[in-house]
Amino acid sequence: MEIGLLWYDPQLPSALPEHLDRAARRFEARFGRKPTVCYVNQVDLDGTAEQIHGIHLKAVPDILPHHLWLGVE
Description:
Helix content: 10-25%
Number of helices: 1
């Protein structure tokens, strides 16, 4: 990953697309480009979506629950 942003949201996993959109807008405002990947804890991902808003989702156990790690790969 070239650059990344760790985003905490206590309301995850409810309404993941809306929370991911908010985090992606912050990422773009900070880094001037859109994220391409988001690492998320397995418990926060329902397993049905592989991509939301053009961002690839990757479920990994290393990310704490209620956190999104957005970046560019």
